[in-house]
Amino acid sequence: MTTLVIYCQPGAKRSQVAGLFDGKVKIQLAAQPQDGEANQELIRFLSVALGVPKSSITLLSGQSSRIKRLEIAGAWEYGQIEERLLRGSSAESFGY
Fold it and tell me: Would you state the pLDDT for residue 92?
């Protein structure tokens, strides 16, 4: 299992990786930060981007913060996850 710390920006027109922010992968989310909608969208987006089931992604902390700490199950290393997200930064490149 790998722990991933990311910076989220809810309320975007579409979900996509927007580079790095303060040393963290920045993800813009096409969901509002209410009733957990942005957190659900984040998990859906990461699931597609990484090719893992949603059940493999757990939000550990940051439920109401822009900085989220997630756990990704599987044989991933942090560097692999970051590289994959930054390489295919748009939703279309992930088939999302």
Answer: 55
CB 27 within 8 A of CB 91: no
* 26: β partners: 7
Quote the Cα angle for 26-4-29, to 5°.
Answer: 35
Q: What is the pTM of this model?
A: 0.88
Domains of the chain: 2-94 (3.30.1200.10)
Residue-by-residue DSSP string for 10-51: ES-SS-EEEEEETTEEEEEESS-SSTTHHHHHHHHHHHHHHT
d(CA 16, CA 39): 14
